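Supplementary Text 2. Reproducibility record for the structural model of the 762-residue chain.

All settings were left at their defaults, and a single model was retained for analysis rather than an ensemble. We include the record here because the model underlies the residue-level annotations in Supplementary Table 4.
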Amino acid sequence: MGINGKHPIIANGQYYIEPLTKRNGGGSPTFPHEYGEAKVRLCSDISRIQDSIRDSEEVFLDEKIVCIRLEPKYEAKSYTPSSLVAESGMKLVGGRKYSLNSEDSSKAKMYFVRTNDSELAELKSKFETGKKDHVKKWKDQVCTIKSIDLLRPEEKTLGFSDSWEEGIVEVVIHPLGEDCGKVVDGFFDVVKIKKSDAVVRTYDDGLTFVCMYMDRESMALAQKYNPLRSIKPMRDDWEEQIRVCSMVAPAPKLPDTIMKSSIKVGVFDGGVQSGTKLLDPYVDNYDMVRAEPTEASLDHGANVCGAVLYGTGLAGKMETDTVDNPVVSVESFRVFPAAKSDNPEADYQMYTTIDIIEKVVTERPDIRVYNLSFGPKGAIIDDEINRFTYVCDRLTYAVDDGEINPLFCIAAGNDGTLESPFNRVQSPADMVNGLAVGAYTLSPLNDKYRAPYSCVGPGREGAKIKPDILEFGGYTDRPFISTKSGNLIMGTAGTSLAAPVVAGKIGRLMAASDQIVPHLGRALLIHSAESQGLEGTVENGFGFCSDGVEDILNCSDNKVTILYEGEITSSATVKLPIFAPGISEIHGNADIKWTICTVVNPNINDPDAYTNNCIEDTFYPNDMRFPFRKGTTEKKLNLLKDADIVVARELIKEGYIKSELPVSKPAKKHFAEADLRNSDFKWDTIIRKDVRMRCSSLLNPFISLHAIGRDEYEHEKIKYFVVITIDIPNFKGSLYDQILQTYDNLLPIQIQNVNRIMTQIN
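Retained model, structure tokens:
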């Protein structure tokens, strides 16, 4: 028995994971076009492109970018026009959604294809001569295509208001292989701007990002450049995002014995001023930019570092009070303000900051949790990925085998009071491998509710529920109390404070047990978040973050939490048992809740297919209740019942086929891809679900995980972390003890004294 009836949560669930064989189902698809009609129409499309090239309607290079637009509802990877492209020597270089018309918000899938004059002619010839008319895959893909054309000028500019005249923008140029340098130089020639006045960053086999200053005239010139993918505005001034303090007071005292933790949280922010009493012993500061810090940036950096170290614990502290030694320490990297000079690489602050983050995260494997409480101002745009987001996602994923993936905790943004969609989360809070944190505040009765300034969802494809969780961020009537430069504390508010509180909680989970790695901590925080009946809403995400780490790491006699972690290869299926011995004999209900967290490879070339991998989950409540199918008729039988066994034999004689897997709940139909994305969060990196059933309906329940990879990523491994809680109030005795006695390899996590990670420094 644990203290006060509490027990450490249980680990090693992965030791009982088994492979499953799962056949793909589904009937024959229907297509929006007849093949003969589609061939004629697409031939005409190619002729129009050839006319545009001949008449120089755009600035074309030897290799061109053309668009293949699919009809709505054909987003699934099986409809990717891979056969069409491969047979003509073309190359898919990305994709995104396109608007069907200006009257509504309906969108469909569009692919970008790199080609040249001879390849276009060859594709047209195949349509005209009927050389591929006997190939089913070719014909099926042709029948889903709406048009083959060029990206329209207005489709290349995203997120600009009618009042915009000039400013800093982010330009994205399509990948054109070995000709990358030529393509970039050509862009600057077209817009009549010197390359030396911009910052250019190119990723292997990916897009080129350009940060530069443009006006409407140069943007109009850019729209005629064929390799241009997009231009979007970028607010680059961090100082505008710093919220003003509402009160200042003397800081409480430090403990007599100073102990510093070996669990480090990295903070990219405005730096920390030496002589800040509550921070000096626990923070190492690194100036990563040459410009002198400002008072506002140092105060913001102090706010954030204080929130990591002390959480919300400074509220109510007086000058005569004493704080405890924090359980984590901070590595502070000052990244703003950037110098104002003639050097664009120093002046374009966001790109300078991203470069620093890439360098630090790569070189500091001793830091596995980072906080970002700033970013480019402005709501995310569904049809493009910001470089900041991509870099953070890539840094999270790209670690050596056996290494721990870092975790970014990111502030969701403070524009929640703007009209939709301008109140959406801001980059890089839309990253799919990170933890986006919004802010809540408290009513006079201490009820939690989203702070009005906190940005809302939805997130982007791959992370549709954003922010992930809400943490206390303060408000005008209930400010967040944190550290200020010098011997002071201050009251302020913002998601900038909520995010570092969560980063500190992840650090405290890691300090409590060596078995908790950052992304398992991410799964635990989301799993334990209080939804208060508002599950998965655009305002609250998965809910309010739990107040205490102890509550997350403990469970009770009859409400038991078990951890699983591992890797699964795309196309494989595994079975995760839900440990509940003797459950079918219990009267009453069982509540089962599970959270799945994955770390995936991001695809910068296609915002609509940004996650290259995903896991589909299915719940099976009874491993002896099977469906028998004949055509469209289905009968479900419990093969533990003698009467059902007799019926099953008769059904098999009549031509029914027994399914390889038991009946699932809810029984999955063969949904369209768009419906799976919207209702089942397919391709998302976080899944949280729950179910309530009669205990008598459960027998050896389990969850299947089926891994999926897109295109060339079909054999890539996916790292996953799973948290499952089963709650059986009427269980006789202790479910916790019964599970441990029945399954020898399951063990409680080792919750250790934090002194083991502390070193005295005075």
